[in-house]
Write a structure and sequence with these properties.
Helix content of chain B: 25-40%
Helix content of chain A: 25-40%
Order of helices and strands of chain A: HEEEHEHEHEHEEEEHEHEHEH
Largest sheet of chain B: 9 strands, mixed
Strand content of chain B: 15-25%
Structural class of chain A: alpha/beta
Shape of chain B: flat
Strand content of chain A: 25-35%
Distance between the termini of chain A: 47 Å
Oligomer: heterodimer
Distance between the termini of chain B: 88 Å
Amino acid sequence: MQPDRQQQQQGIDVAVLVSIGRHPTTGRPRRAEQDARGLELALAMEAELPGTRISMLHAGPQDDDSEAALRGYLGMSTGAGMGLESMTLLEQPEGSDAIPALAAHLANAAPQLVITGARAERGEGSGLLPYALAERLGWPLVNGLAAVESVENGVVTLLQALPRGQRRRLQVRLPAIISVDEAAPAARQSAFGPARRATFAITPTTPKADSELAQWQLAPARKRPKRLKIVKSASARDRFKAAAAKSEGKGGQVLTDVTAEQGAEAIYKLVKEEDVLR
Amino acid sequence: MSEIIRRDPRREWIARNRLHPDYATVLAEMSGGAVSEWMGPNGVMRKDPRAIGFIGPNGVRRIDRSGLQQGGQSPAAAAAARDSRRTVTIEQPAFLVAVVPDMTGGRLSGHDKDLLGLARRVADADADQPGAVVAILFGEHKGEEGGELKEQALGEAGIDRVVHLEDERYAGFAPEARLAVLSAVEREMAPRFWLLPDSPLGGADLGRRLSLRLGERAATGVWQIEADQDAPLGWQCTARGGAGSLDIQRPLPRVALALAECAEPVDETRHAAEHLTLAASIPTNLSRIEDLGQVAVDPAGVALDEAEFILSGGNGVKDWEAFHHAAKVLGATEGASRVAVDDGFMARDRQVGATGTWVTARVYVAVGISGAIQHLQGIQRCDKVVAINLDPGCDIIKRADLAVIGDSTQILAALVAMVEQQRGGQRDAA
């Protein structure tokens, strides 16, 4: 009984913010890639830390399309007894500002950890929402998360993804907001049955229209012009040479007739200079 | 006496016969130094078209008639071209444009330079009342040789004023400390615009924090700006939104996060890069985020296309056990050529080249790889290529920055011994 209770104490409240994604080719609504990874992270935490309670949160309208997309998340919990049979839907019409509703709900529910995707796939998609929530709630925020290592005494140890597959370890005091992008583990498949059986807890909110967004002009993305190589030179000959020149090898150093040690030393020097040896 | 032109028929005959062994020396004597031109017997200037010009890439003689010097451009001429930059000093700026470059690896990246180009466009829009670009730099600047060159590099990128903060506090992941500095800059200088690169783990994070701190709704993914009189700040911007599927046209807000290639980098002017210091001390509040430093990752687990150090083996590798050992000791990610994969020595997902992975390593060591064109395509974007090969005539030698001709097994063994010895020495010293 005793160890069981200790494990119960270890568990924390995790809120996962989910949005409605957009399939890149067809444009159909689906579960958003990054948010699904965030939920996957939370489910992995639940498996490691028994007693972790996951709640899902979405702010938006309730209609058939969005429901189908949101059920994609609900189908991700396959095990028995997991707390994902329902999700909270803060109902507000399309084009409303999600931040006040989410901030008010999170301040009320007071989860210890909030996991979000880095950027939405529809609408403005500026990636400002996690930062806005962090600013409003006054919680620390960590972006580009790869894994949650441990939770101890109100401090969570995280791995942040750096470029070139590198990782950085961070310790953050709870409550905190973490955002995930492509570096987090890929989301599991969504199961159809649990997704159908799950329910929505619909909470009405007082919607606040996003008037600024309504004034902007949104258009399908144009292809960006490719940058031209401009040669600024006085003489035509230089410009012609620059245009006609083949990118030729710089002609590196070639070591022939050297012993293995000398060759190895030259390589070692270069590797050391480039600072890739750890 | 001196008016009579003395002729030496024999020398003239030699000068006409370019197959003669003394041709060059005679020509040189007759022309008095410049071989290609000399006074002919009747006082007419003669030119030798064969003595001028240079041999072109296809073995054909090319004659440069533009009046410039022949052959390749000399370093002095290149330096002169660089010195043609106009020096611009802005004493009394009408407003400030603050830029926070990423400074990846201690230098201005290409993205930073594009962003500074954008900042210059905004600052120089009105020629009568130019603004100044102030750059806030964190961490050490790794110039070529320190001090003066740093100002030069920053000035040539288009920076008028520099606030440079080198402190332990700002190293690693320290968004709260950096944000405190930016807030102090905002209070003291009140720049009209804040421009940051929209690069993950750099400006994208810091810029969003800053915009929320300033209570602005930042424009993210900006890739184009246009002057617009109706907009509150005089500019209209086009930003990418909705996971790259939308273009959003909106007035440029005070905080903007721009994509790479948002503008042309500065290349015609040189600016002062004057140092500024912040008057107020920056408060040191206890950070709730603690950076425990980088974690050693298993190089074998790093995806091949983003690995920074790759040891790649091909047909010339005979001892694969030693190869794997060398990769482990060096801490390099393993790659392979198609032949090595086809022969079953390496897994298919390790293949580098056109049909495998296009790699972006900083150092790529090709062991026993001859360099088929498909393989060379795959390593196009690598910075430094090292080749270890028995054949000095193969194609990878032409691509390689350092090529060692010799037996790969022995060289790898020597390299492993050297690295182990160095590591052992370091441990003793510590």
